[in-house]
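note to self: dont lose this again. the chain is below, predicted strucutre after it. 863 aa total, dont forget to put it in the shared folder this time
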Amino acid sequence: MKNLLVILFLLSFGSVFCQSIEDAIYNATDTFNAKKSPEALAALNKNIANFESRLTSIEEYMAFIYLLVNKAYYLDKNNKNSTAISTYEKAWKLYKDKNIASSYDFDIIENCLKPLGILYNRVGDYLSSENITKSYIDLAKNNNDSNQVVAGIINLSRLYQTLGKHQQSIKLVNYGLNIKKINAQQKRILKGIKSRSEIRLNRDVIIIDKVVSPLKTFGNIQEKELSYELAMQNKDYAKALKVFKSLKNLKRDQLSSASLLSKLYFQEAQLYFLLNDFNTAESTLKIALKYLLPDYNSKSILSEDNLYPENTFIEIFDLYAALQSNPEKALEYYNLSFYVIDLLAMNTTSQEGKFILLNEYRSRSEKCLDLLYKLQNSSNKSNYTLQALKLSERYKSKVLKETVEKKNLVKLYPEDSLLILQQRLLQEQQQLTNRLYKTPFKDILDSKTIIREQLASINIELKKVNKDVEKKYKRSQSSFSISALNSRLKEDQATLVNYFYDKKAIYQIIVSEQATAFNRIILSKENTKNIKNFINYFESSSSINNNISNFTEDAYSIYKLLKLDIIKDKSNLIIIPDGFINFIPFDALLTAKSETEKFDSMPFFVKFHQSVFNASVLLYITNSSPKNKHSVLGVFPVFKDTSQELSYSLDESKNLKKEIKTTLLMHANATKSNFLKQAKKHSILHLSTHGTGGDFFNPAQIAFIDEPLSINELYNINLNPELVVLSACETGVGELKRGEGALSIARGFQYAGAKKVLYSLWQISDLSTSKIMTSFYRNLDNTTSISFANHQSKIEYLNNKNISNIKKSPYYWSAFTLYGGFDQVEHNYFNKWLIIGISIVIILFLLFLYKRNNGKRSVGIST
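---
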């Protein structure tokens, strides 16, 4: 074997000395293609190292690109996904950088971009797959190559099907069917894709139109695939298996990719599982796994070291888990799925791409939590509860945790050029993504080629930089230790209440210094409806006041539903919400039934518990605020003489200035640029303005006098304040990303590095806001505790006898939620002693005057 390697190397490398570099590269490529073996690949890699440093002419670069795409093709067919991707990416980058298209008619789409897009899809980097496919569609349009345009549309519509975007897939197919010069085979494929999406949308589907095609077998495959889809949609698994077997015989000989063959056998195994034929399902799964791991021995223990980024692994391990009767064994297989998921995540650099993956992670976590819940119920030990806590945390707010971790590394090593480069690339990536979304939409495949090509280049560079950072700093993978959690809870004298919002249930994990609890709340239609109805009470000021008795009943009902009565004797709570629980104002819940209509007499949650919220356990543990003297930057656009005028914010600004050291940006000075320039100089940023939670087209944003600041922009900004106070509407509301949470302005400031954020959950009255904010800062100045000041401001509002009962509705005071952690109360006695001291001096001075005056008067009388 070693001799063969030496011969191959000498044959290819020796020719370099008697040939031009261009000829040597082509000969090395031909030699490799003739052998196509691991030994040939090793020899080729040695030649590549020599060639790359000597390339000068465009002819040599063209030859080298040709070598790279041949190498990548081999790697793809032999399950080397990551290396194949990086090799195709390298070829594409050189093709652009050296402007090869100006001198050579090389089909970069067929040889590089199409297989690269398919590989991105296979490893779960869906956004890169979409981006690169749209890029080569645009390139094909510019070259008037309708064949490749349609090929791109086919791949893109299939990608949308993978993501469940069936409406988008159908729209794209209709666009493709109207392209001139589309051939019969492409038309048939597009119609099949459209029919498949219509089946998934439960539409009435007529099997595809008969299109004349010389490939009769191809037509049979297409029709059988649709028959299979219909049977699956109708849950007629026996019919689906019958169709699939004939389909497998037609497709097996046409598939050369190990990944596609593995997928084929996985689908068959899945059908046997659905038909309760578990033995056949397991034996078929072994065949599927064998295609991905040719050296795999089913009798040996499967090791993580043998795995690589490949979506089919996840499907195989999930099905293996479902076949297990032993929950512990099932969890082992799910852990293998999680391992592959983490490998896939390393290929995804963009925020949006990670959100897509997070959505997929959740379903697996849900199944594991169900298994752990059952195991815990049959055990007296708490280890399953703590496993469940770690599992629920693993993919919760993952993008936020990674962002915070990267920025913390930069703080620790501010001069590290690698970390600086990583931050710059991330900022450029987000800026380009924002530009891509904001570019006017003209048609389905509007040309945005330049931006997409820039994004592709940054994506390639970021992946390399991320690997270098990972290698250099060996990051913790966003994990936490139970001992660190217990230590922090003891320090805060707090109890953790962690929620995981499943499709079928809400899991609640409670951890305190004394005990743990693991609960499951069934998400029936009625319970889901009740949660949403309670949130809806806060859509307007009249919703509660017009139905006080209904509200009190529902507020207690949700308190019980969320099993908060279990921790009724715990005063300090750190709550990790999830799903719709993110939008529940816990302080407005009632801890007991109440018949009164006087709000200040109701047993509100806030009267018994001081609550702080966080996006994850890890971020809670690492959250800390040094006890520095606070300096506030207050932003008050006011919007005077407009329909959006905030007249009460003038009072808020005066009171803020009175209570704590503050720099104010008022009226015309309250611009976005002025805020960003001064933000780093202050420990507290206070924004009294308008905010929106965003919609399908626009991200969450907060208003300044000139232009708004969006969550997308905050993702790229490093502010790092101790506290951001968002005295504005809906700053805690935003698009709810499954696994990540609400993409609100509050989340944006968390991305920007804020340790604590005080935000609102709905549109609030600015008069009540002014009163609460004044109380908040007075208590903060007196105690230096942000968590205490937030809690006390609500208590003082409820106890204020000058506020009417109507205005004491929780609509007016419970909107503000504190994200972060607890901090200790340290009373600022200086002002009190100063007042006492001055008072004593004044009293002594008055006594002195009194005695002196009385003394003079008595002398006069005696005379």
